[in-house]
Amino acid sequence: MLYGANLVQNVDWKNVIATDETTFRLSTVRRMHWQLPGHRTVRRTVKFPLKINVWGCMTSKGFGKITCFKENLKSHFLCTQIYQNCLLPTAKQFFGRKKDWLLLKDNDPKHRSQISKDWKSNHGINELPWASFSPDMNPMENLWALLK
Fold first, then answer.
1. Which of 16, 32, 52, 64 is the most exposed place for a label (fewest CB within 10 A)?
2. Which residues form the signal peptide (predicted)?
3. Which of 39-53, 58-72, 125-139 has the highest mean pLDDT?
4. What pLDDT, in 10s, does the model give residues 4-30?
């Protein structure tokens, strides 16, 4: 945690694009109910609920592009579709021609794959070093929690 605290202090957050992806399932509405002691309530569930995957990004200046997709997110799709069509336009929108912005993403394997590393290197994208197992430090995680 100390690594994460030191990292946060030394970052110019005005130059960071925070990104994350999540899945929204339509059958996961949490409902409160009463039940008598000794009785079990039976809840109906859907075996294969409808779901939508969402990728989004934000900066200190505002929200960037959001995209919805049905596919499971793999490195190639992440780079060629999401980064190309959402991340780069958001960077241009908020930072113009400046190249000193940083990408904040979690340590999911698809972000660390060689395909992803090569794509970011070829497009001049610099990453913010991120402590392992610290998703709560990414502001996008808090946004998803509010939306869910």
1. 32
2. none
3. 58-72
4. 556 667 788 899 999 999 999 876 556
